[in-house]
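Hey L., structure's done. Input below.
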Amino acid sequence: MHATDPTVFVDDDFDDIDLGDGVTVASASDENDPTDAACAVVTDPDAAVPDDVPTILYTDAPPEAVERPDRFDAYVSRGDRSALESQVRWVLASTADRDASEVATARNDAEWDRLKRLYEGTTDLIAAETVEELYERAIGLTEHILEFDNTSFFLHDGDSFYVVANNDDMAGMGPIPTDMGLLGETHRAKRSFLVDDVRDHPEADPNDPAYRSAVSVPAGDDGVFQAISNEVGAYDETDLTLAELLVSYVSETRSRIESEAALRQSREQIERLHRGATELAAATSLDELFEQTVEITDDILEFDISYVGVVEDGYIVPAAISSDAPADGAERVPLDDGGIAAEVFLSGNTDITDDVRDHPEARPVKRMYRAVLSVPIGDLGVFQATTFTPGAFGERDAELTELLMAHVAVTAERIRAESRLREERDRSTALFEHVSDAAVAYDVEAGALTVRDVNRAFQSAFGYDADDVVGSDLLGRIVPPEPDPNPVPEPGADETIPELLVAAGESYRGEVRRRTEGGVREFILNVVPLSPGEERGSGYAIYTDITERKTRESELERQNERLEEFANIVSHDLRNPLSVARGNLDLARETGDETRFDTAERALEQMEELIDDLLSLARRGQLVDETERVDLPAVARQAWATTDTADAELATCQSVVVDADEDRLAELLANLFRNAVEHAGPDVCVEVGGVDGGFYVEDDGPGIDAERRDEVFEPGETTGDDGIGYGLAIVESIAEAHGWSAIVTSGTAGGARFEFRA
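Output:
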């Protein structure tokens, strides 16, 4: 029966399939028995399948959801009639002239094995997420299941073909002319070819003379699949049918991937448009709003040229245009003769013009402009998008643009309203703005301070932009944290932050410390309530920066302390050696003893050394010049060479680098070297090396008693017979000028060790 009148059994009523003449389609509704059919098509994945009848599953269920897929000989996604017809024709061709027992036996043949493996492989094919991945997986199926040697998928783009996938690393090859041989004929005719020998085929024009046989199958409207062999007659009808089945799977899956991608792109475009519209709401001026509008339409809606024109005094005036537009891409046009833009603004209706050359009212500024989309922006103006190709805009473009322009119109009205309010506020706050000191207008409610406005002097003094602080709680930004996490207030002290006093209508004047971008500074704060004596919670805070004055006062205080210290030194420390010198000179005159001159000379040398140290402290204090990265051992050797160190020895490490003023560092080291020689003897060994975060200087002398280590940096403090006690004071002064801490401890050999860390 199958050889003369094949029957296809279907278990559901669906659209008629075209299987050609001489094929009977029987359905379950006609009470037909599927066991008598040459082929069965079932739509239910759970349906009972006759063992001896080739069965195709035609269903909406995805392949991965089908249990025991090996029960079926093929899978076709419901709705793909072309693939279903190809599968059925393949089964009928394979079962012709066979009875049911022959069919059961044939299903174990290699051809049926390839068909089943192709079906099973389509699960992997359909799971592809990108078109590129789809083609690569399809090439894999041609190698491992269809057992083709050289296969390619070609894509038609423009007037040429390009290889998009190949099993021999030829992907990307092209362009290949459209009219080239069998490839071009397959694309033009939209039909498959099975060629036993390309040398005998009138259309074949192979790239490689070694090519002999081929299978060429159209893949949708813009592609072709080909399998090439160097052998004559390498392919048969079974290979062609399998190739057609594979291509149908690829085409269907590609359509699904591209549809999903288009849907995803559309969803992403709408989401981006929504975000762009949200950003528009933050615009603070019409110029900014219009510039952002054309940026959004160019970037998100992907228009070639976007333009916003506003209506002023009977004209449409350019307000913003795409950055890629020609320099004279827009012009001022009158409303009574302004072409499409004027017509759209006056009517309030969107217009899509496929080609301005065919529009009687069009007045294009540039002849290159072709398609135009025009959308009104409320009573403000009109938006236009232009392309250089006709028919570029559709209804979706218009809908998305109308949605965006609605946001633009609302934002523009908000900006204009704010502008009017701003003008009124500017007139009333001119005095506030011109206050020379930093000023803040603010409200207090429930203990929170909210800034209404700040003047330019505030932005300059504090370093905070008005946009950053207006509407925020200023106190959290400018009130520095307490050094003690649990401060204990002095008895009777007012713990209230002065700025909050306006809540009770109270004023305040006093010194405060407030945090700026540049650090904590000193201010005189004047708090002025808007309504004195009333609990309205509004007022002004005026900050007068006195940081420099306080610094000068502190410096003056330190200078006075040094002057007092110098006076004590002059009156005491210089007087003693001066008295010694005078006394010995008098004795020398009276007795003629010349040794008295030596004693007087040593006293004068001590006075000279003392004066040099005093000048060092007085002239340079804690100042250092610009610091740089210097080599500590090199500076130490330089200082050692210029210091009277008798028979002492210096040991340095190989490499320690510190950030310092080289001259002052040398002065610090020289004082430490002299101190070591004075207290540890002329043959002392001094070592200079690095520690974590700094460096050290130590000697192998007797060291410094622990109870005296806090006193050694005091001016005039000494235990030596010849020392004057100012060398270590200079050392500490230089260290503090660099921002280093200086501590005294014991060295490895028990001597004095001085450590300096940043």
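The radius of gyration is 48 Å. DSSP finds 19 helices and 29 strands in the chain.

-- N.
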